[in-house]
């Protein structure tokens, strides 16, 4: 049976031999948007000028430009998301650590506690 006992590891797809599209964040979306950008730019240039070679050049340039643009935009957002996650994780750890102590920022201090500190 196909579903029983399959212990084969899933193969990853490597683009150009080095870009692991399955495991690298943002790689899949960048390649897909890049291919769409190359199609639009190449076809648009061909319909406007009817020059095949130059349209292919525009398509390759469109692929590179769109792919890199999507890649940097996605990686920037991914980095921001990871920074926010790390800050939230540290904040939750500090809340658990300081909860109920005199260092708890949510705990209201009375006049006697302020003068003792």
TrEMBL record:
The keyword 4Fe-4S does not apply. Its main location: mitochondrion. Pfam families: Cox20. It comes from Apteryx mantelli. The keyword Lipid biosynthesis does not apply. Belongs to the COX20 family. This is Cytochrome c oxidase assembly protein COX20, mitochondrial. It is found in: Mitochondrion inner membrane. The chain crosses the membrane at residues 31-52, 58-78.
